[in-house]
User: Which sequence fits this backbone?
DNA sequence: ACTGTCATGTAAGACGTTACATGATTAC
DNA sequence: GTAATCATGTAACGTCTTACATGACAGT
């Protein structure tokens, strides 16, 4: 149900088409949730059938068309229900740590390659998240601006603070993974001697 | 392919039945990978069809039966190939951080409930992983003992070190999540004033 | 004319979850 | 005898990925 909640969260700020939602999943919200078009379009139709959103057909030029989705009161309630419901924590499935547990079965060079790739992977994420925090602080985040525009004055500070808090968590996680990979590289060195 | 790799990793230490593998996924390896029986049994059969494992039928009592799976040289090679291949990092899908980004839309009490549950969730994991590290240090980890028994002398230190390293990473991650949740609780307090 | 981006999808398959079904053996 | 645990599955469903299909519009 998290895809649905992510879609509702975006649509609650203002109507969007499937295509625009897809774009959001590559930028802002994409940092915490991702979905391809092939998942979004069918989900939107199911949500419309269930009355959580309504589609509004628009024309573009002569024959072009797109469908803007609006959240209904039922959709709004569904989102808030989700926000209040206990999160379903999934059982761990962590390929990187699984592999780490068996690094002695490959050559030190190969172990290093894995750990360096892990570090690189998280450095890339870290860079994205840090720059997102800078954009939030500078008031330049487009998604946050859009949200603040429809937010009552007294909630603006909270909206910004929680958004920043979210990214801080991601940044800390990335730093933890990077530090772990570096300790792994040091361990490979130590074991080789 | 990670389920397959996890199964091969376990079977490389020694033959096991589907039932025993299932058990392992609730304890030792279960800390980094989980799978229910309904996934394990069919996967083992597919792996046998592909020649990665061979099943050996055994009897138990009068009519009882079980099937012990052994890794073949092809299975061994497949595991090492996986160890050497680049890890497929999945796009983020993080319900907890998704929710955190919208905490201003619920009451402070509800935001606190979510953050406390998050902290609790990770404290429970942390306790498990820390006790696993203590077991490793005390030489009491059954899975590690089993692995060390089939490991050449010169690789024993590495095997133990990588196993500990894996759990250290999990412990650090849990601590990061706990610290984040606590900062979130402090933030809720600050915003309420 | 051609490229890029807007726009919406289908199809097939891999992966995972939950619930249920069935029967044997072991320990009390 | 009865409960626990050993042992192996099936069925239905939900989620997610990858690849492909189709066409319109906008700018050069």
Assistant:
């Amino acid at each position: 149900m998290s895809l649905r909640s992510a879609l509702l969260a975006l649509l609650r700020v203002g109507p969007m088409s499937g295509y625009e939602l897809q774009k959001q999943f590559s930028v802002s919200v994409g940092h915490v949730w991702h979905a391809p078009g092939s998942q979004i379009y069918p989900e939107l139709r199911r949500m419309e059938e269930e009355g959580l959103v309504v589609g509004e057909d628009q024309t573009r030029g002569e024959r072009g068309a797109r469908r803007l989705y609006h959240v209904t009161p039922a959709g709004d309630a569904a989102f808030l229900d989700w926000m209040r419901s206990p999160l379903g924590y999934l059982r761990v499935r962590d390929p990187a740590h699984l592999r780490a547990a068996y690094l002695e079965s490959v050559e030190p060079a190969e172990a290093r390659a894995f750990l360096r790739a892990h570090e690189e992977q998280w450095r890339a994420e870290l860079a994205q998240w840090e720059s997102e925090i800078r954009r939030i602080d500078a008031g330049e985040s487009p998604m946050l601006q859009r949200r603040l525009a429809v937010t009552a004055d007294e909630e603006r500070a909270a909206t910004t603070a929680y958004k920043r808090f979210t990214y801080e968590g991601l940044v800390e996680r990335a730093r933890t993974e990077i530090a772990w990979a570096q300790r792994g590289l040091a361990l490979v060195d130590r074991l080789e001697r």
Summary: The beta strands of chain A are 16-17, 53-60, 64-71. Residues 17-20, 22, 37-38, 41-42, 60, 64-67, 90-91, 93 of chain A lie near DNA strand C (CB under 10 Å from a C1'). Chain A touches chain B through 63 residues (CB under 8 Å). Chain A has a mean pLDDT of 95.
